């Protein structure tokens, strides 16, 4: 009986000791997570940016004869320039348009142009549009008072979007700075990621790590790259043709391309506007340019999305869009990586099962001759 009591006491002491250790580790992990939580999003963006820039960084390092720190600094400065210059131009254009409208409204010189006859003659909706347009032309202030509740909602939403965009821009700026350090220490980062992958996934961990890296590059080129090219070329065309607030429309086009709505809705609306503002030849030239920009999505995306990844393009595309819907812009990358890894794990499980069945079927045939001998 004494031995049983001693054994229970030892077991209880060990259980209490294990509980204290686990509780201490859990508290430490939670504390560490709370400390680094503000940096999780910038650091995730930094990893994505560093992976996307790494091929160019390697070429630049070769040009600079192996000076990795200098190459990382140059790549970071280029990213800052590519991000800040369009943002400043867009902000200046938007602020200028707002000041112009406010000044015109305060001096009562804000006028609404007459509604084109083609719009007024549209079936079903033409009469309503003409009525509201006529009221706005004759008494613009009364129309503003009438739609004041809707304007307040729209203004509140706009302020929220602008605040979110400002926070997102700050995250990206910090992420670019971190990405520069990651690029400068790329070899150390690769060894660390490979060691972590081996600990998590065993022998195939390095394969999954490389697959994740290739997937991020594929999404960067196939979704963000194509969206950036389309919105930039479209914005240049709108700026050349004289579309008001072309920078704002280009930013909206970039967002719509990223979320896979596409540039078509904005393009159609601007084509209608340009049709009533310019001559026939200019409109035809602008129409050809718009069709070319729109077709880039169908030409470049199949080429770039999924390139370098031994996974169907549909898997990457579905993962990117599903991730975006659930987690925002960063979900484009996280969703695609998670779905690709899940797809590869499913294939490994299926192939592993078939290989085991084949090996089991082959065992009797191998043992038969041995027994006969």
Automatic annotation (TrEMBL):
One of its GO terms (cellular component) is plasma membrane. The keyword Transmembrane helix applies. Keywords: Cell membrane, Membrane, Transmembrane, Transmembrane helix, Transport. It holds the Pfam family AI-2E_transport. This is Predicted PurR-regulated permease PerM. Belongs to the autoinducer-2 exporter (AI-2E) (TC 2.A.86) family. The keyword Acetylation does not apply. The lineage of its organism: Bacteria, Pseudomonadati, Pseudomonadota, Gammaproteobacteria, Chromatiales.
